[in-house]
Amino acid sequence: MLRACHERIAVQCTTLEKLAAHLPSHGADTQAQQAARNIMRYFDLAAPHHHADEEQDLFPVLLGISQRQCSPVGERIASLLDEHRSMEASWAQLRTVLADIAEGKTRPLEPVRVADFAGAYRAHIALEESQIFPFAEACLDRQQLARLSAAMVARRTIGTITPQ
Predict the structure, then answer these.
(1) pLDDT tens-place string over residues 73-96
(2) Of 6, 9, 80, 150, which residue is the least packed, with the fewest Cβ within 10 Å?
(3) Structural domain count of the chain
């Protein structure tokens, strides 16, 4: 599930870059408005779930294993957590511009800010997929993976209200 999320993050980063290139010539036309809404929907809803999957479920388990094995993965996880906070702050800044674009107001998306945001996510994904996920696959048994998967699915389940 996490790798699939990474693919969707990459798609949204590419859409953001295309939107930044589209705006100078076309302004906040219908296509730009829809792209802005799609990007906001993803980074407002799905990205926080993805971060929670890692921070609340995957990383704590891996940190425990890393400490027992004296693995450097724990240090990498600490760095990834810092990156989450940084990317969330960058998103908050980009989101204000995207909200205006979604409403039809022409505002420029600063190319440097867009490149920094997309680049940070791509580097973050590359580290997770090259170092963290292989460590998890090597260390976690089927029961642990099933618990992680169930927690991720539960986080995304809409309307699961317990009757009173």
Answers:
(1) 999 999 999 999 999 999 999 999
(2) 150
(3) 1
- One-letter amino acid at 13 equals C
With tokens 């990474």, the residue in question is 6
Q: Does residue 161 fall inside a structural domain?
A: no
- CA-to-CA dists, residue 157 to 46, 58, 146, 150, angstroms: 12, 18, 16, 10
Sign of CA dihedral 59, 39, 44, 49: negative
Residues 97 and 92: their CA atoms lie apart, in Å, by: 9
Q: Is residue 163 part of a domain?
A: no
* Containing structural domain, residue 54: 2-155
* Torsion sign (Cα): 104, 107, 112, 116: negative
